[in-house]
Specification:
This protein is of the alpha+beta class and 641 residues long. The chain has 24 helices and 17 strands. α8 crosses α13, α10 packs antiparallel against α11 and α13 packs across α20. The longest helix has 21 residues. 54% of the residues are buried. It binds glutamic acid and magnesium ion (MG). Magnesium ion binds next to β1.
Length: 641
């Protein structure tokens, strides 16, 4: 989850005193990097995925499942046996926010050849196997986005009571500090976000109203004034960073061949974020209740919202410099490429001095405003030993601000003195239950970057519309019910030769061109699978691309299976994880149609998730018939639909 410095963390008051220093030197560090590598080009395509995991423990006798707080130990062993023993080890492990979490990536980035798509799933399987082999009896490694009973009494092993007094990190009524990773970055972030904000974070996720859910649904906090005021009727109230950053996701990072390609990809993929997020929806439950959202996004966004009342527009500006319209964890606020400029229609708060300084240093308006926007934020953590740095050779101050701007996309300059190129990170996806699904989403997004670059596709729409899409994308069943703004003509002049090959695609482009607006409201099915006369569809375009590529049979078969999953999730033939979980709960014999997820229901659900992840049972409604997913082995495989 970003920069991990070691040392003695400063309090918020001390950090604040150094905020201008961090920003000033962060910008100098950025400038050093920029001037050193702005002209770098011909970097090759490389990419990698990040999967976040939770450790759980089943108590079969009492039908309970808990989050095990052994992430640090497991991580230590994984690193010891892995990267520290062998620099070419195929997996890499990193800490994550919860002390019940770990994060795994491939040991080396993937390259540009098609056959590498066929190694993604094996690598994810290896990660699952490596980490699972270190767990104790009855424990499991789960790829679930949100743990349904996170923050409920006794949700951790060992159990801890939250201690809502000043002096700790969260001061949460529900989420004990012991569930936060012990690396000082995480608790310091938690405490300093709260101190900067001037009060605890407030998260209100709408409750799903079932037949027997009280209406209005009101939680009472008689002993806690702050909670009583902050909690909204008909919402599930949460009060700690852990409710958000304690969730898991699936991310992909790409190295582009040059800075301009990175900026182009950043913009294009930004428009795809809400679509793929809705397609990956996997987090319908919070604090033991069924919510009315399917995605974690809004919950995390609120969980790290460090803006003061002034910055949120609740009080006149006195001590702060700006009104800020979004949390640090939110969708991007400006496009970065020249073709994006005319679609930058969101008010952008920037640090004017920094902006001017960047312009003077020869940085163009779009990049300057991007950086000057990130730098309206204060550093949230600072280590005493890391205040004075060598700006020409270090980038910690830049990374400090950059890595606590958790946006849908991240534009990543190369680290100083490295052979890494300009990169972009795609961050909105929810993690799926199985390695098969996670590979499918990753491969889909990577292939999309291939066609965007090869066919010079253009998905840009006004950024305010992308923001509207982000809101729709989180709603319950957005994948089938939601309508999303999407660009009608995605083929730039001269770039559509191959898409022309798909007859229907061309026909629809012409039809669309007659209409006035550049974009229209479309369902995810239309966007992904296409609709005659309306939109060619991303999967048909990917298929055209694949037909023109040399791909070995085995890889082609895997890719087809991945795309089939995406296609069917988009059409509704298969369920999203969120929908499947909702149905599982609804059909559970203990469920009382009251939106409550008891310990036993949670146990059954996570047990089932674990069986599915380890292929101990089938789940055709989520994954499709099992035989379709079997790797090509010389025998006939159905790839007709
Ligand atoms: N776990 C966070 C999420 O679900 C992301 C943390 C990170 O940036 O690695 O979005
Ligand atoms: Mg992470």
């Amino acid at each position: 989850m970003g920069l991990l410095s070691q040392g003695s963390p400063l309090s918020w008051e001390e950090t604040k005193r150094h905020a201008d220093h961090v920003r000033r030197h962060g910008i100098l560090q950025f400038l050093h990097i920029y001037h050193a590598v702005k002209d770098r080009h011909k970097d090759v395509l490389k990419w990698g995925d990040e999967v976040e995991y939770m450790l759980v423990s089943f108590d079969h006798e009492n039908k309970r499942v808990q989050l095990v707080l052994s992430g640090e130990e497991v991580l230590e062993t994984l690193q010891e046996k892995g990267e520290r023993t062998n620099p070419n080890h195929p997996t890499l492990w990193r800490p994550e926010y919860g002390s019940y979490m770990i994060e795994g990536t491939p040991g080396q980035p993937y390259g540009g050849t098609m056959s590498e798509f066929n190694t993604v799933e094996d690598n994810m399987r290896q990660r699952r196997k490596e980490a699972t082999s270190l767990l104790k009896e009855n424990q499991a490694l789960c790829t679930i986005t949100s743990f349904p009973r996170l923050g409920c009494p006794g949700f951790t092993l060992p159990e801890f009571k939250p201690n809502p007094v000043e002096g700790g990190a969260s001061r949460s009524l529900f989420f004990p500090d012991e569930a936060i990773n012990k690396h000082p970055r995480f608790s310091t972030l938690t405490r300093n976000i709260r101190h900067r904000r001037g009060e605890k974070v407030v998260i209100n996720a709408p409750i799903f109203k079932d037949k027997n859910t009280p209406s209005p649904f009101i939680e009472k906090f008689p002993e806690d004034d702050e909670a009583a005021k902050a909690s909204k009727p008909d919402h599930i109230y949460m009060d700690a960073m852990g409710f958000g950053m304690g969730n898991c996701c699936l991310q992909v990072t790409f190295q582009a061949c040059s800075i301009s390609e990175a900026r182009y990809l950043y913009d294009q993929l930004a428009t795809i974020c809400p679509i793929v997020m809705a397609l990956s929806a996997a987090s319908p439950f919070y604090r033991g209740y069924v919510s009315d959202v399917d995605c974690r996004w809004g919950v995390i966004s609120a969980s790290v919202d460090d803006r003061t009342r002034e910055e949120r527009g609740l009080e006149p500006l006195k001590n702060n410099n700006y009104r800020i319209s979004k949390s640090r964890y939110d969708s991007i606020d400006s496009y970065l490429s020249e073709c994006g400029e005319k679609y930058n229609d969101i008010d952008l708060t920037i640090d004017k001095e920094i902006y001017e300084q960047l312009l003077q240093e020869g940085i163009d308006h779009l990049l300057a405003q991007h950086v000057a926007h990130l730098f309206i934020r204060d550093p949230l953590t600072l280590f005493e030993e890391k205040i004075h740095l060598d700006d020409a050779n270090e980038s910690d101050h830049f990374e400090n601000i950059q890595s606590t701007n958790w946006q849908t996309m991240r534009f990543k300059p190369p680290p100083p003195n490295s052979d890494i190129g300009w990169r972009v990170e795609f961050r909105p996806m929810e993690v799926q239950l199985t390695d098969f699904e996670n590979s499918a989403y990753v491969v889909f997004v990577v292939l999309l970057t291939r066609v965007i670059l090869s066919y010079k596709l253009d998905f840009l729409i006004p950024l305010s519309k992308v923001d509207e899409n982000m809101k729709v994308a989180q709603k319950r069943d957005a994948v089938l019910q939601g309508m999303f703004y999407f660009r009608k003509d995605i083929c730039k002049a001269g770039g559509n030769a191959v898409v022309d090959g798909c007859g229907k695609a061309q026909q629809s482009v012409e039809l669309a061109a007659e209409e006035h607006e550049e974009y229209a409201l479309m369902s995810i099915d239309t966007i992904i699978n296409g609709k005659e006369g309306v939109f060619p569809g991303l999967i048909p375009i990917l298929n055209c691309y694949l037909e023109n590529m040399e791909v070995d049979v085995d890889t082609r078969c895997s890719i087809l299976n991945y795309l089939k999953l995406i296609k069917k999730r988009a059409s509704g033939e298969l369920m999203t994880v969120a929908k499947w979980m909702r149905e599982f709960i609804a059909n559970h014999p203990d469920y009382k149609q009251d939106s409550v997820i008891t310990d036993q229901i949670n146990y059954s659900l996570i047990l089932k998730c674990n069986q599915i992840a380890n292929e101990l049972c089938e789940c055709p409604e989520l994954l499709g018939p099992a035989f379709r997913r079997v790797r090509y082995s010389g025998s006939k495989t159905d790839s007709s639909n």
